[in-house]
Amino acid sequence: MIQRWNGPGGYRDVLNIGLPLVASMASTTVMQFTDRVFLSTYSLDAIAAALPAGIANFLLMTFFWGVINYVNVFVAQYTGAGKDEMVGVSLWQGIIFALVGGAVLACFWFPAEAFFNGAGHSPEVARLEITYFRVLCLGSPLALLTVAMSSFYTGRGQTRPVMVTNIVGTLFNIPLDYVLINGLFGLPEMGIQGAGLATVACWGLNTLFFTGLVFTKKNNQLYGVWRSRGFYLPVFKRLMKYGLPGGVQFFLEITAATFFVFMTGQLGKLELTATNIAFSIESLAFLPMVGLHLAVTTLVGQSIGRAQVAEGERSVTSTLHLVFAYQICLALLFVLAPEPLLALFRPKGLSPSEYSPIMDMGIVILRFIAVYILCQGLSTVFCGAIKGAGDTRFVMWTLVAASTCAMIAPVYTAIHFFQAGLYTIWTLATVYMAFLGITFYFRYRTGKWKSMKVI
Question: Treating both helix axes as pointing N-terminal to C-terminal, what angle do 11-42 and 309-336 enclose, rounded to 10 degrees?
Answer without folding.
Answer: 30
